[in-house]
Amino acid sequence: MIKSSLEKKYTGAHFPSGPKYNRKFTDIEIREIRSSSKSGNQEAKERGVSKSTIANIRKRKSYPEVI
To answer: What pTM, to 2 d.p., does this model score?
Structure first.
């Protein structure tokens, strides 16, 4: 399989997101998750994702471009 230049440059959680790419959350939702005092488990259940997804968002491994 031949990888595109983007696939070679970006992998996993660090793949760029934006209008061209499918995103699970909007920038506003990302900010809400990061500022929430809810546990990762509670936040994950409410949003229908895994605890690790919430943890990666809070650690800025996912969506690092969102301030």
So the answer is: 0.66
